[in-house]
Amino acid sequence: MNSRITAQTTVADLVDLWLEQVRVDGRLESTTINEYERVLRTLVVPRLGGMRLHELTRSRINALLGDLGAQSVNRQRKAKVVTGAMLDTAVMRGALEANPVRGSLSISRPKAAARSLTLGEVDEVRAAVRAWLSKDRPGPRSSGDMADIIELMLATGARIGEVLALRWRDVDLGARTVEINATIKTESGNGTYRKSLPRPRMIELPESAVFVLDRRRSAVPGNVIDAVFPTRYATWQQVNNVERRWRQIRREAGLDGITPEMFRSHAPAQPVHRTQ
């Protein structure tokens, strides 16, 4: 890769070479690399792809970041971070004297005030899910799991992927506990799979969660992966599908300000400890 990057290399060619090297290095997850590629090819290459590295200046980087910031601070931030990492490599290879992203337009994201859902909002969420489920719509039967997934997020503070990764062996209804020990990942080439968390945690279940899980244990057929929320093909559900369903639900109900993060922050304080 060293001899293939020079001051005459175009940004588009550098993108190809850098992504190739990052994949060969094997230090990052495929999902992370895929996101880097998406950011570079959709946000950076259309504007800067034809430029040669020696033509890149801080003012050109700032122009790109300024345009992206007018669309979305998130896009602006991702473009700066990923492009900066890529151009660091060009500096190390001697193709650039300095990285024009360093010292470029400063990006600040206003912090959203963290808050929990009010009891009224929780009732609105439940009503919105019921209304959404009552409509005839195409899609797999697992869409009907949305109510239970949200109830467990509200009850435990677990993330979507952590709820989807639950197995029956992780649940002890007699002791009213659940071990959160994995999340769900979806990667190109690897599909959707369960990934263990580095620090599992045991959570005491409130009565509402015990009711949901007890009902599911009786109603959901057994499956080879022991999933609490299997697809109809007995595979792990994808996080992005649940996120997409929630966006549909909140759009139809006019609950645009309510996010899954609020489900987690609503969870009541419960004894939680790390498992070995």
Q: Order of strands side by side in the largest beta sheet?
A: 1-2-3-4
Helix content: 40-55%
CATH architecture of the largest domain: Orthogonal Bundle
Unreliable spans are none
What's the main sheet like?
4 strands, antiparallel
Strand content: 5-15%
How many β strands by DSSP?
4
Number of helices, where a helix is a run of at least 4 consecutive DSSP H or I residues: 10
Write down the overall mean pLDDT.
86
Which secondary-structure class do the elements indicate?
A: alpha+beta
Radius of gyration over C-alpha positions, nearest whole angstrom: 23 Å
The total tally of domains equals 2
CATH uppermost class of the largest domain: Mainly Alpha
- Note the overall shape: elongated
List the helices and strands and how they pair.
Elements: H1 11-25, H2 30-48, H3 58-71, H4 73-92, H5 119-134, H6 146-156, H7 160-164, E1 171-172, E2 177-187, E3 191-204, H8 207-219, H9 239-253, H10 260-266, E4 272-274
Antiparallel strand pairs: 1-2, 2-3, 3-4
Helix pairs in contact: 1-2, 2-4, 3-4, 5-9, 6-8, 6-10
